[in-house]
Each structure stands twice: as structure tokens, then as C-alpha cells.
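seq/struct pair 1
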Amino acid sequence: MSPAARPGGAESSTRWGLVASAWSVYALYKLGRINFSVAVPLLGEEAGLEATEIGALAAGFFWVYSLSALPVGRLADRYGARLLVGLGLVGSGMMNVLFILFSDHFAVALIVWSANGVFQAMGWTPLAGGLGRWVSKQRVGRVVASFGSCFVAGTALTFAIGGLIVERSGVAAVFWAGAAVLIPVGIVWWIGVRDPVSRGTAGEREEGSIRKVVWLLPPSAAIGVAYVALIVWTPAYFVEVHAVSVGRSGLLAAALPASSILATILVGRLFRSVDAASATLRGGIMLAATAVMLFMVSRAQDLVTGFATIAVASALVGASSSLVLGIFPRITAPARAALSSGIFALAFNLGGGAGSPVLGRLVDRDAWDLVFVFLAGCVMAGALWSCGWYARGRRGGLGGRSFA
């Protein structure tokens, strides 16, 4: 019997224990990938890598990670989160070790760090699929919409701890530290978690047709552009627009994830138990609010208003990302949530990658106002698409379908 099906207090204890464990585990996943970003400033000096080689390493990881989302999603729907998440944690930890051991051999390092993308992809989609089995239909909406706060928390944790490790012990230490956490956590997860997967009825499999997923992917790609942009360019925004020091800009940027965590949890309360059309409409409204706030950053005239607007914008982008990566896959394919989540994650990452060259050119021209206008336009396009999907669903009778 699955944890979500057990009656009484035991069911509640097991269910929420699984959710809390999944949240913590995915936050820790970031120790095995964001540590690379933390190490970049000294990676060339200590590992002897050129800037172009560092860029190739990042690109190799990004593309392998993105393309792994689909096969991992298919496996997760079949085998559940226990095996894949445990394997991903242990494998990512081992790739961190191998990366340091072979960092002076670029070709080998590229293969190893790209392979890390496969193991890192074993985190989000299996856990997103597992939430539907662990949480009752009456609560799964709120839980899924709030769950994305884990990747914001993990990013903040890695930047904070990783920066101290690199500063005091060097680049290699931050990769060894990631391995030291991920490998034992992966073993404990595999031993302790039980995640039985039901094959479902023919009707459920038909309802989970992946063809329906494609029509709601544009909002995921749109918010992916903004999410990646804010992670990459926020420190530079404070330095170049508001003339603060690099150290102070890092502190200002590090303060932003806390607002994203809070916003994600609060927004999740709006999605406790709703039908598919209603959830899509609320998602569209959320994306529209995010677009407006991104546009307001371009109007900021001083550091105080600049920090305030970008803090709110970052919070809304984080909450919107959690929404489209958690709720929207369940709207389109509730019976195949893991595979659907993988497809949405692929669109999210490809959107972030596609927007990066445009943003780079704008930053090179010091056109920071246009940077945020561009981001606002992308997210607003996603909002309009969501509202159009809602209108189409209402005409087609989608409103009565549960996404849980």
C-alpha cells in the first residue's frame, strides 16, 4: 500500500515525512552542480583551465542535463523516486570527485562534468512524480506549488557555504564537500524510502497522454528565460547600474533567495484544490504580475528602489518557476507526472539557454533597461499563453478535470 493511501495518523506521518525528505534532498542536490558556479572565479587559476574551456564545461553540463529530463521522466513513471533519486545523488557525488581528479585533463573533465548532468537530472522529475503518490488529492496542489522553494533554498545554501569553502580551502574542497554530502545522503535515501508505483488503469494512462503537454510548454520556456537571467546577471546589475563594489553586490544578490522561498510557499496556498482550468488561469495571473515587476526594475532610479524591485521580481520569478514546473505538468498529464515534469523542465532550461545570447548582447551594450523589458516581455507572453489555454479549456470542458 502506498503511503498516501494509509489511513489515520500513520498516513499523515509517513506522507509528510516523505515530502520533507524530498524537499531537503533536492535542496542538497544543488551542492553537486551550483558548486561549479561558486568555483568559477578561481577554477582557471587553480585547475589551469581557460575561460573558453570553463564555458564549454558549463555548456556540456547544461545540454546533457536538459536532454536527460525526458528519459529520466519515463523511468521515474515506471520505477519511482527511490532508485533514481538515490542513484542520482551517489552518481553526482562520484562525478564531483572524478572532476577534481581529472580537472587538469580538459577532455576527460568535460566528459565527467557532462555526465554529472545525467545524474543531476535524476532529482527533480522523480520527486515531482512522487509527490502525487505521497500527498492526497485535496492537498497536492498546494504542496506541488510550494515544493519549488527547495531549489531556491539549495542554490542559496550552496552559494553561502560554497563561497566560504572556496575562500578558505580552495576550489577542490568545494567539490570534495559536495561528494561528501551527496553520496551518503543518496545511500540513506535508497535504504529508507519506499515509493511503490501503480501502473494505473487504462483510463488513467489515456488521460496522461503526453501530447497534451506540448500545448502548455511556452510559459515554462518563458519563465526559464527570466530565472536563468536573474541568477547570472543580478550581481552585475548592481555593479554596473548602481556602482556598488563586487563584494557588496554579492551580498545583495545572496539576500534575494530568501524572498523567493517565502513567496513560493505563500503562492502555493492558492493552489490547494482547484480544477485544471482555474489553476491555469491563476498561473497566468501570477506570470503577468511577475512580468509587471520585471518591467518595474527597468524604471528604478537608485539602489534602494533597484534592490526593492529586483527582490520582488526575483521572488515572483521563483514562485512562478515552481508553479509551471510543479502544477502545469499535473494539469496536462496527471497520470504521468514524472515524464510530464521532465518535459516541462526541458522547456524551462532550453528557454533559459535560448535567452542568454540576447541578454549577453544587451549587457555588452550597457542596455540594462532593455534587459528587464526583454525579460518582462518574455514572461508576459507566457502569461497570455496560459490565459489563452484557460479560455480554450473552458470552451472544451476542461474546467471540471482535477489535476491532482
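seq/struct pair 2
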Amino acid sequence: MTDLLQHQIDYYSARAPEYDQWFYRQGRYDRGAAFKRQWESEAQIVREQLLNAPRQKHILEMAPGTGIWTEQLIKIGDQVTALDASPEMIAINKAKLGSDRVSYIQADLFTWRAQRQYDLVFFGFWLSHVPGEELSTFLRAVYDALAPGGRLFFVDSQERESSHTRRETADLGGELQQRVLSDGRLYEIVKIYYDPAQLTATLRENGFEIEVLSTPNFFIYADGVKPI
């Protein structure tokens, strides 16, 4: 498992310069204007839910990547701590935002443990890359990182082939996918597409008051709390 997780880190480090093309439906991810409008409409549903909350003092963002969601978090947080294993992702995020309200930590998300508690923990398109055997340990770490009454919010992918390019992804069975970068390099990563009801049950078993919802086509998301 250690080799697989390192391979996954290597993939996202190598993918960092082209990652935004996926979210903004550009280049090889461009499936036409109508598709892009629907994608953006559903992304806006998630953004509005995230931003529709009281301002938070200190937010932890796990796997912030290039800053797509960090940019939203600084609208509702006084301070954001952005935790990522990839120095390449951190460099892009830092250059894009240029905010003194965001601090960065480079660390392995599977071994890092919070030294304080946060008012909000957020992760975007990360939970689906956590191996099933690591999920409970990861969720316990998230629970411990949240202050009592603190908010947990995440967004991830529904299983939909059109979210990718026609040549980017190959299913390897179980939890594994093969991904192809634009230069042809191949990587194996973990990718799990969750059923919202089953994931809701898992999160509640791990102590959160939360429900996982879906947009019509592309995303799942959840907005809940750690009980006081």
C-alpha cells in the first residue's frame, strides 16, 4: 500500500501544471459549451452551500491542490491552513492566491495529525483517493482535527465517464484506476466512487452529524458537524 500511495503523490505532483484544465473543462477535458455550462452550474451549487455559513476563524483544507477551493475558503475564513503532500501543488496554490491568510504545510495526509483543532475542515476530490482500509483511520484524524461543533465539508466526484477524457482513465478493478497525463505517462491511483447513502452511514458511524448529497450529474458533497 505504501508504494501505491507514493505513486499517487507522484501522479498529482506530475499532474499539477494541468490539473486546472480538468476542473475548468479545458483542453482535452473540453466536451463543448453545453457540457461546460452544466458542469459549472453544478459546481456553483456546491460553492453556494459552502459559502452559505457564518465566517470561520481557522479552516483546515486537506489536499488543497492548485487552490480552486482555497480561493473559496478565504472568503469565509480568517485563516486557512492548507495541507498537501505535493510541493508542486503547493507552489501553484501559493502563486495563484498570494494571500497572507493562507499558510501551507507539506505533509503526508495519511500520517499527519493536527496539533490544534479547527472550526472547519474541508477537502475537495480527496476522499475518493483514500484506500478503503485507511478510511476509518483518516476519518478519526479529521474528527480529532475538528473543534466540538466544528464544520466538515467536502466535495467529490460521481462516477461518470464524461468527467474525464476518453483516454485518461482505465478501470483496473477494485479501488484502482490507471491515469494518463497529457505527455503519456501512466500512473496507478486509488479512486473510489461512493454511494451517498452508504457514505453518509460511514460518516455517522465515525461520529459526524452529516448527510452526503448529490448534484444531478457530477458531484457528491456533504456539509455537517462534529457534535458538541
